[in-house]
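Hi F.,

I've been meaning to write this up properly since the lab meeting, where we talked about keeping a consistent format for the predictions we share between groups. The idea is simple: the sequence comes first, exactly as it goes in, then the structure tokens exactly as they come out, then a line or two of notes. No screenshots and no reformatting. I'm using this chain as the first example so we have something concrete to point to.
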Amino acid sequence: MAPYDSEDTVGATRDEDARTGRRTAARYAVPVAVVGVAAVTIGLVPALADSGDPDLPKISAQQLVEKMARSDVQRLSGTVKISTDLGLPDLGGLEDVLLSGARGGSGKDSGDGSSADPKDRLTELVSGTHTLRVAADGPDRQKLSLLERGAEYSLIHDGKDVWGYDSKSNEVYHSTAPASGKDHRAEAPATPEDFADEALKAVDDTTSVTVDGTAQVAGRDAYKLLIRPRQSGTTVGAISIAVDAKTGLPLKFTLTPKSGGAAVVDAGFTQVSFARPAASAFDFTPPKGAKVTEEKDADKAPEHTPERGGRPAGGPDGPQVLGKGWTSVAVIETGAEGGLPTGSQGGDLGGFLGSLGDPVSGKFGKGTLFSTRLVNALITDDGKVYAGAVTKETLVKAADTGK
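Output, unedited:
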């Protein structure tokens, strides 16, 4: 039973029909962000500073969640900004090499890959501030464009076709969308709506949910939903979701860490329209002279992967999960005994990786712990990975217990 706290406390579960109803809302192609060795989905959309506190009818937290569940926005266009601050060090481009290697050399510098492959390009959203343009016309037409200095990367879904186009290199990547009626997200969620969806899945008796006043986002009146963990041991401080008062669509998503400081994720619309986008917005023909790469069957993600919205790799049913609620920890068996090749064992790269992590030991044995402002990951010498939005102490305790 999920507690929805407002001025009048209400404890109730969300209406299942309403929740499934909003699954039909428009989706966008999105990025897969990788933190250390833990694959972390970070779909984001721009944040606009609140420009006023509109006077809206009083609403309870449960009513606001149900309003979000009933939202069925099929058409929209807008501009979004994405700011992500995980506290990762500047790797000077090395992250591209690491991500490419993790995918078996399919990166844009591997020789046989494409700079237009969304699995490579959209990982750029894992850090820094970016501007996107998004458009959607039902479940079979979406477009996302990442605006860069003097260039643009676009990901277009039009019916059975998915196109990625990098204007800087004039390269095109083409793949086939899932069958009609299925979820058409090419990667991870990329709007406040999708991100809010994931946050609401965490709502249970370990969570406090309240209405935290009103705001204006992208010129629209909105209610603010505040989600706070009741548990200690998590790195999550609070999640704030600005919900459009008229449509129920999340317009802004902000995640702040318990440690304080800048938001880890600040995503919200700066401009949005619910008018039907022009059909030409989704038309795409490879430009003359462009290099076109066709997705191979072997490159397509299996059913249960983050790319397909399934569970992370680690077995037919996903990784083992230790703990409950906000302090849950995923355990992945890599099969690579010996731990991380650091120091002289891993050459220059090993020495660099070793400098980013801290050696730890416990009942589980020995390993290396990597930290960000949100996610901590422990790689043990016997080939296991423990990862979660938990403190270092909670992570090591989970590894000891799991052992």
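Notes:
Helices lie at 16-21, 61-70, 94-102, 118-121, 192-201, 347-356, 392-402.
The longest strand covers residues 207-217.

If this format works for you, I'll send the rest the same way.

G.
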